[in-house]
Each structure stands twice: as C-alpha cells, then as structure tokens.
Amino acid sequence: MAMRRKRIISSLLVLGGMLGSFSSMHAEDAMGSPTVPVTMTISASVAKDKRMPELNAQDVLVKRGSERLQVTDLVPARGDRAGLDLYILIDETSDPRFGTHLDDLRAFIQAQPETTAIGVGYMSNATVRIAADLTTDHAQAAAALRLPMGTAGAYGSPYLSVSSLMKLWPQDDHRREVLMFTDGVDRARSHLGWHRGYSSNPDADTAANIAQKTGTMIHTIYVPGVGRARHNYWIGTNGQMNMARLSDMTGGESFYLGLHSPVSIGPYLSSLQQVLDNQYLLSFSAKPGKKAGLQNVKLSTEVAGVELSAHDAVWVPAAK
C-alpha cells in the first residue's frame, strides 16, 4: 500500500511538472517571440507618366518566408530625413571615351539637393582611389571628375573595389548609395581563364552581402572597358549580368544598352534621380536569431501601379 501511494504521488508530481511547463510555453506564445527593430531604405516606382501616390506604413507588406512581419513606420526620405551619402565610382578600366559623359555627370552632381553629400572615387587594384570625400560642396565634387586611366591595374575587380569602400564607410543615419560606372568584368579572376558561358561571380555575391549588411544600395551604369573584354561576347555579357545582379540584390537600378556604349547617360541619370526622389525609410520588427546575421525578406504593396525595390536581405542583430 505504501509503495502504491508513493507511485501515485510521483505520478502526480510529474504530471504537475508537465502542466507547469505547458503553461509556461503557452504564456510565452501569448506574449509573442521577442523582436528587434530594423530600418531599411526602399524605393517606390510607377509607370512612366503616372503620378506617384504617397505611401503609408499600412501599404507595405514585409514577409520572411511565409511569415508576415509587423511594419512599424514608413517615413518619406524628405525634410529632416532626406540625408543621403552618394558615392560615384568610376572603373579605371573604362574606355577613355567615357569623357564624353562627364558633362552630364557634372550636371547631375550639381543638381543634387543640399541634403545630399557626394563622393567621387576611381576603382582599381581592388580598392577605390578617393578623388573627393563625401561633401555637400557639389561644385567641388564635380571638379574631381576626370578621365579614367583606361587600364585594369594589377588586380582589377569592381566588386572587390566597392567592397573595400563599404567596409571603411562610417555608419550614420543617412541613406547610403553608390553609383558605379563599369563593364562589370572581374579582371582579377582572368588568371583562372575566361568562362565561356554564363556564370555568377562570387565577388559580386560578397559585395551584395556587405551592401545588405551595411544598408547600401548599389546602382550601376554599363560603360565598355578596354582590352580583350570589350570584344568578347561571353566576357562582356557575364560582366553585365553580374553588375545587374549586384544592383538587383541591393535594391538598386542597373542601366545598360546591350554591350554598347550609351550615346548619352543623361536619360539614365534622370531615371536615377526619380529613384532618389521617391525613397522611404521603412521600419519593421524582425525576429532575431542567436547570432546576428542577414535575413531574407520580401516586400510588396497592394497600392495599384506601385513597385517597391529594396535589399533581398536585411541585417538583424542577435537576440539579447
């Protein structure tokens, strides 16, 4: 009888523990998983000649997989939130005939609002040679433009160059964007042999990951380079594909006219200006992991005629 009583008491204690654990789990689910605030820059666009509507937080849907995340704020990048740091990077391997575009580029720089700081750099040897640090003196930035050298250097890769810039770029609360003029060809990998066929460049993927981590949008404009790459279909097409993919993964725009040099970059710059003029700072609640890292997100809107562009992934801090 005593043994039976002990077994009953033991069973009741185990059952009580299970019920307590279940109640604790239920309470945690009721409170919801912990979240952290995340902010990213997004661009809104409409078809040509259509009016851009004003968007609100409830107009934007953010999903991670099939899970919808809570949007907490959507602020137009205007007024006291208009700050923009924009680096213009020119590939030193670009054909010197790029000089025909310099007047259009100077006009674009000098037309920027006073809330935009412009930097100018030249990409070579996997680094960026800064010709003008970020400045709101747009005349100074425009004066720093020059002809590209027309040479690849010892280790020419636009992806390694832009990566090196982003790693050294101090963080602040301004939008961070880059405009690259390049043919997208990674000459640093030419010693491995040019690939005949379509291939993804791992350095472009690395640059995209750094851009997503630092919140940097990368826009690209295709301009032909010098040397063999200019005349090889596979090399040129792969370069253009990878630079376009870099822009797409970082929420930027990519402009090109086949493998030909554009007659004028003016229309491209006008389109880019529309992008910059219709940007928002989107804030939402993300669920952190044990370690900080990138989380893939997908944005959409039900507002008719509006398309949103943003990073494929956003950096989420670790859970505290």
Describe this structure in words.
- There is one protein chain.
- The chain has 320 residues and is α/β, with parallel strands linked by helices.
- The protein folds into 2 domains: 36-78 and 281-316; 80-277, Rossmann fold (3-Layer(aba) Sandwich).
- 31% of the residues lie in helices and 28% in strands.
- It has 7 helices and 15 strands.
- The protein has helices at 2-31, 102-110, 138-143, 158-168, 202-214, 233-249, 266-277; strands at residues 36-45, 60-64, 67-69, 71-76, 84-91, 116-124, 127-135, 175-182, 216-222, 254-255, 279-286, 293-296, 298-301, 307-309, 313-316.
- The strands form 4 sheets. A 6-stranded mixed sheet has the order 7-6-5-8-9-10.
- A hairpin with a 2-residue loop joins β6 (116-124) and β7 (127-135).
- α4 runs parallel beside α5.
- The N and C termini lie far apart (52 Å).
Alpha-carbon distance between the two ends? 52 Å
- The helix content, as a percent range, equals 25-40%
CATH topology of the largest domain, by name, is Rossmann fold
Strand order across the biggest sheet? 7-6-5-8-9-10
Number of strands: 15
- CA radius of gyration is 25 Å
Poorly predicted sequence stretches spanning 5 or more consecutive residues? 11-31
Number of domains: 2
Which architecture name of the largest domain does CATH use?
Answer: 3-Layer(aba) Sandwich
- Biggest beta sheet summary: 6 strands, mixed
CATH class of the largest domain, named Alpha Beta
Shape: globular
Number of helices: 7
Structural class, by secondary structure, is: alpha/beta
CATH superfamily of the largest domain: von Willebrand factor, type A domain
| Residue share in β-strands | 25-35%
Order of helices and strands: HEEEEEHEEHHEHEHEHEEEEE
